Amino acid sequence: MADYNVIVIGAGPAGYVAAIRCAQLGMKTACVDNWVNSEGKPSLGGTCLNVGCIPSKALLDSSHHYYFMQKQAAQHGIQCEGLTIDIAAMQARKDKIVKTLTQGIVGLFKKNQVTFIHGQGRLVSSNEVEIIVPQVNAQIVSADYIIIATGSVPTTLPMAPIDKQFIVDSTGALAFNTVPQRLGIIGAGAIGLELGSVWNRLGSQVTILEALPEFLAAADRKIAAAAFKELNKQGLNIKLHTQVTSASVANNEITITYQDNQEQKQLCVDKLVVAVGRKPNTDGLNTKAVGIRMDERGFIQVDQSRQTDIPGIYAIGDVIGGPMLAHKGSEEGIMVAERLAGQKSEMSYKTVPWVIYTAPELAWVGQTEEQLQAAGIEYKLGQFPFAASGRAKAQGDTNGMVRILAHAHTDQILGVHILGLSASELIAEAVVAMEFEASAEDLARTIHAHPTLAEAIHEAALGVDERMIHA
């Protein structure tokens, strides 16, 4: 008889959610995780809670308040002299939030009777996991099912090796104890833009080097163009189509050499952040030995039910590729747990929302105008600017717009793209509408409270049929 019904390897948003749902469904469940915090103690929540989603949003919020007081408060009649920022206090607040939430998962495990085992999980067979803890005898535990949820780690660059002092990854950039006077960032994706926003607001001269010729290639082109213009206006110097060839440290500064339009250039900075994406975290998992198939980039291959080539072993979250988003991994964890319990659970990747937490925020779900054109799908477009929103004007932030794409004949909503204040919250209405296969007319006929930012969605839906009221 196996020790557990289910063993989950990894306690990030995919793993801990899968473990809790398995336990709720009556399965004896264990979750194995080897993360330790700066104090050397086990810390649940994976990258997201420890060095990703949560701490970055905490710093974004702190830097936003400082930026508001420095640049915008006077418009509200608020005068402030001698404004300063205490980086140590800001970091302490961030750390407290992280600790509270990671300890919260410990409480959730206890409440749901999930057994937490600290250590490195290593596959031994189709139903056995060896748990390795430094300076402690390894133990082998068995289960009817194994769920791999080991997440991802930052991608590194050989020409800019991480030294954790001058050249850092996203983890290091969340822990600066002073504001760098000159900050370089390689990569203009969500991580690079968010980290750049934090330190730019606090006073850094930020230069972002992006290899791709297009800014945020996955986003709607008009939304991306408007965001690019606004972020540059705020002080982020974003250089596209640049190829970094080297980064060397001397005399307490980093010299970055890069190609820009076939011309070799150099940039000197005090800190350099490498934010060029993430790769699957499978080191030490022993996947090959047990026969688990992986693609050329190292992602674990799974079928429709997220089962690997080995019956009884499943994989979810970043480690299987697709959108590397915490909420996507969590939903996969719930789906797999429910399938193991005999339910016919499914999830739709067409309605996974994307968010970038700059100011203004970007959020989108579904297809872009460019994707619809490439697929030959006829569509209608409704677009409403926040400059025409009473609530946005009252809050003093009118940047951005809402764009709704609907099928030209059926009126079904195919994509919603938002740039603006609270876009991360507003996109939820679009996700719900698309989950229910709603039409633009459905949103247009839905009463939205006034004055709210959500009225911009209502107006954009009206705009699909060319009947906007306030623009």
Explain the layout of strands and helices.
Elements: E1 4-9, H1 13-24, E2 29-33, H2 46-51, H3 53-72, H4 87-111, E3 115-118, E4 120-125, E5 128-133, E6 136-148, E7 152-154, E8 167-168, H5 170-173, E9 182-186, H6 190-201, E10 205-209, H7 221-234, E11 236-239, E12 242-250, E13 253-260, E14 263-269, E15 271-274, E16 278-280, H8 287-290, E17 313-315, H9 326-340, E18 354-356, E19 361-366, H10 369-375, E20 379-385, H11 390-395, E21 401-407, E22 413-420, H12 423-435, H13 440-444, H14 455-464
Parallel strand pairs: 1-2, 1-6, 2-3, 6-17, 8-15, 9-10, 9-15, 10-11
Antiparallel strand pairs: 4-5, 5-6, 7-16, 12-13, 13-14, 18-19, 19-22, 20-21, 21-22
Describe what this molecule looks like in 3D:
With 471 residues, the chain is an alpha/beta fold. It has three domains: 220 residues, 3-Layer(bba) Sandwich (FAD/NAD(P)-binding domain), CATH 3.50.50.60; 110 residues, FAD/NAD(P)-binding domain; 114 residues, Enolase-like, domain 1 (2-Layer Sandwich). The protein contains 14 helices and 22 strands. The strands form five sheets. Strands 1, 2, 3, 4, 5, 6 and 17 form a seven-stranded mixed β-sheet that branches. Strand 21 and strand 22 form a beta hairpin. Helix 1 runs parallel beside helix 9, helix 3 packs antiparallel against helix 4 and helix 3 runs parallel beside helix 6. It is globular and about 65 Å long. It starts with a strand and ends in a 7-residue tail after the last helix.
